[in-house]
Amino acid sequence: MKKPIISLIIIVTALFFIWFFNLRTTEGYVINSADSSILVVESASAHEIKEKTQSELDELYQFEGSSYDIPALNKFTKSKYKTGQKVKIYWHGSVMESAPSQIKGTILIIKK
After folding, report:
1. Is-contact 53 35, C-beta < 8 A?
2. What's the pLDDT tens digit per position in 13-69?
3. Both ends of the chain: CA-CA distance in Å?
4. Which of 12, 38, 10, 13 is nearest to 26 (CA)?
5. Distance CA 104, CA 92 (A)
6. How many C-beta atoms surround the C-beta of residue 51 within 10 A?
7. CA atoms within 13 A on the CB side of 66
């Protein structure tokens, strides 16, 4: 009886690790934050962002970066994101090629 349960636990754990480590990741800086999404630019630097106002950032990065939906886990923990904050985003799925690109399959956002 114990062997099938242990085998099942091992298989489920292995599948979780395979799934998690095959997620796509993005690191970048938050340019704009709303209740349901954030705009992240990979090519920006912290120094560039901290010296500019929000309107200057909106104009400078208007057609750059990617917009990520804030996932349920981050909403549940009431995570807040500030302009200039470095984040790492785990996501899957497709990218809507627009300016900025839009990614709906966000799994987790971690503050760096």
Report:
1. no
2. 988 877 777 788 889 999 988 888 999 998 888 888 888 888 888 888 888 889 999
3. 45
4. 38
5. 8
6. 10
7. 23
Instruction: Give the tokens for residue 91.
Output: 């996501």
Q: What angle do CA 90, 96, 102 make, to 5 degrees?
A: 55
What digits encode the pLDDT tens for the residues 77-95?
Answer: 888 898 889 999 998 877 8
The pTM is what?
A: 0.77
